[in-house]
Predict the structure.
Amino acid sequence: MKGSNYSSKRELIYSTLCSTKSHPSAKWVYEQLKEDHPDLSLGTVYRNIALFKENGKAVAVANILGEERLDGDTSAHAHLVCKCCGKIEDVDMPSLTLKGDTKGFNTDFVAVTYFGTCTECSE
Amino acid sequence: MKGSNYSSKRELIYSTLCSTKSHPSAKWVYEQLKEDHPDLSLGTVYRNIALFKENGKAVAVANILGEERLDGDTSAHAHLVCKCCGKIEDVDMPSLTLKGDTKGFNTDFVAVTYFGTCTECSE
DNA sequence: CTCAAATCAGTAATTGTTCCTGTTTTTATT
DNA sequence: AATAAAAACAGGAACAATTACTGATTTGAG
């Protein structure tokens, strides 16, 4: 079944995704690998990233400037997003104290994202 | 300058956006209005929603199934997102206790989003 | 080794969103 | 109210991120 086989491309894509803290887009991953692996297809990158997300090995952090930005680090942490340049940084996850009910939802993941302006963009 | 004039279409779009708690997409807003206002253009909906976001009168909640979902309620609250059907519900904002530094970012908005499965999708 | 399932490259198709052009509406000024 | 400039608009073309398709290649089980 889907995702059950070994695949050298899949390993490449996953290790590239995990090699950076820049929270890249699929296209960025593709461009990093294209140099050394000119036979890599962008569709393969998208397909494998979708698999990673299904399997909980990656998460979508935000959609910045029309691009979905990814994180191969699925440990609990929050994100800082610069609305100006699109830079995304990791920060400690705050402790969350819930109030109110959760409307019957069965939740398995919480995203905490701070939006603002980074040092460079503030001049 | 941009956004300074009165515009009946703008009012329609804004009131439609605020009339629902479904956190709709731009297309949904367009389709609601199209019946009674067949001369409305989808581009106008997108353009005005961009204005609302600039002016802090609306926020983008999440990008679900490739569609940006919006909220005309900018008060502090968190969101529940069903990964299965895309339904979004409001929940109380948890109290956040920050630890660690914020890397020099000047933040002005925090999004807290819980991902999971809604009652209907859980069967 | 052999075969079926999985994966892939390459490209076409899809689709949410933005951009462009000529027209209409709004506002300010007489 | 008439006029003119700015703002907003409709309609459709253009764009870009993502997905789907097709035929070839790779992988894993027996």
Summary: The domain at 77-122 of chain A is CATH 3.30.1490.190 (Dna Ligase; domain 1). Residues 100 and 110 of chain A are 16 Å apart (CA to CA). Chain A is about 25% helix and 30% strand.
